[in-house]
């Protein structure tokens, strides 16, 4: 059996991602049409950081797939403290058909996947948020009618999980991904390199700069909090350098006339985005939040099927 995991966006090839997104659309139209967790099998859900959209969308989605969402309290379990990640993985892999984990270090998630014996899904780490990007791609496809060739500009903290996942997942989908971020908050160059290599094969492209001109003519504008979970006391000025990158009406005016606006939420109105834009007609953030459920159901069903087939 070949186990498939979803630890970072580029664990899915362009073909894989297209299959998952097609399944997400199918599941949105017919939510109970796939029941890979019927039994019910359990799906372990662990959150080491705050959550609203992830916990609710995974729990609802797992139930719709016929399964049981098994909430595991990371603090009670003491993952990496009371017992090693490897031992926790061995235990949960004997209880659950899939493990979904939100944590800090990507390396811990990788260790979980190495020892679980069942598919492991990244529900956000410091480095990536790939389930959110699948939902965002589904939302872009719904509102723009296509993915490949769309100009997708993200503004704000270019070093965070969302920016890095947009680079990898967006390049996989053939988007022209532009990251506009202040100096000192650019993505890891190794991630940019990986994304550029993917884009070379999909017809997409990758641009990282501190230049607000990257918003010019964009089909999609996206932003995210300037202070990600776990960075609250990192000693960096997370206000002044980001101010020019706020998504406001003026910035939106530089994008395409029919551009849409994404935000993974929670949003801080008056910081990375104005209330006018977030609550205005171009923002599609509630569709984006709903699509978490459909996209995650699709990736879970796809991973289980591939892992069973040994494909
Ligand atoms: N970059 C944000 C995403 C929240 C969904 C964070 O990590 O807090």
From TrEMBL:
Question: Which organism is this entry from?
Answer: Microlunatus kandeliicorticis
The record's keywords, sorted A to Z, are: Transferase
Please name the InterPro entries in this protein's record.
Answer: Asp/Orn_carbamoyltranf_P-bd (IPR006132), Asp/Orn_carbamoylTrfase (IPR006130), Asp/Orn_carbamoylTrfase_sf (IPR036901), Asp_carbamoyltransf_Asp/Orn-bd (IPR006131), Orn/put_carbamltrans (IPR002292)
| GO MF terms, alphabetically ordered | amino acid binding; ornithine carbamoyltransferase activity
Where the record annotates domain Aspartate/ornithine carbamoyltransferase carbamoyl-P binding, the positions are 4-142
**Listed GO biological process terms:** citrulline biosynthetic process; L-arginine biosynthetic process via ornithine
Its protein name is Ornithine carbamoyltransferase
Question: Which EC numbers characterise this protein's activity in its record?
Answer: 2.1.3.3
* Segments forming domain Aspartate/ornithine carbamoyltransferase Asp/Orn-binding: 150-303
Q: Which family does it belong to?
A: Belongs to the aspartate/ornithine carbamoyltransferase superfamily.
| Record NCBIfam families | orni_carb_tr (TIGR00658), PRK00779.1 (NF001986)
**What EC class is this?**
transferase
């Amino acid at each position: 059996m070949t186990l498939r995991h979803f630890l970072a966006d580029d664990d899915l090839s362009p073909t894989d991602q297209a299959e998952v997104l097609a399944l997400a659309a199918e599941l949105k139209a017919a939510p109970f049409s796939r029941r890979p967790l019927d039994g019910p099998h359990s799906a372990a859900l662990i959150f080491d950081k705050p959550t609203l959209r992830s916990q609710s969308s995974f729990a609802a989605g797992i139930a719709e797939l016929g399964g049981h969402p098994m909430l595991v309290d990371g603090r009670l379990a003491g993952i990496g403290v009371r017992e090693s990640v490897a031992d926790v993985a061995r235990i949960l892999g004997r209880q659950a058909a899939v493990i979904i984990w939100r944590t800090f270090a990507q390396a811990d998630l990788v260790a979980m996947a190495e020892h679980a014996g069942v598919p492991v899904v990244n529900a956000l780490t410091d480095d990536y948020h790939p389930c959110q990007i699948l939902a965002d791609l589904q939302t872009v496809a719904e509102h723009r009618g296509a993915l490949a060739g769309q100009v997708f500009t993200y503004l704000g903290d270019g070093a965070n999980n969302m920016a890095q996942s947009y680079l990898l997942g967006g390049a996989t989908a053939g988007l022209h991904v532009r990251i506009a971020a202040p100096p000192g908050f650019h993505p890891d160059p190794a991630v940019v390199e990986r994304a550029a290599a993917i884009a070379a094969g999909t017809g997409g492209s990758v641009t990282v700069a501190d230049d607000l001109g990257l918003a010019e003519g964009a089909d999609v504008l996206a932003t995210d909090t300037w202070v990600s979970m776990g960075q609250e006391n990192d000693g960096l000025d997370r206000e002044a350098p980001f101010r020019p990158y706020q998504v406001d009406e003026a910035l939106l005016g530089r994008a395409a006339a029919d551009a849409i606006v994404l935000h993974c939420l929670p949003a801080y109105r008056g910081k990375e985005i104005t209330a006018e834009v977030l609550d205005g007609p171009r923002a599609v953030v509630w569709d984006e939040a709903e699509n978490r459920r459909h996209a995650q159901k699709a990736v879970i069903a796809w991973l289980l099927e591939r892992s069973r087939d040994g494909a």
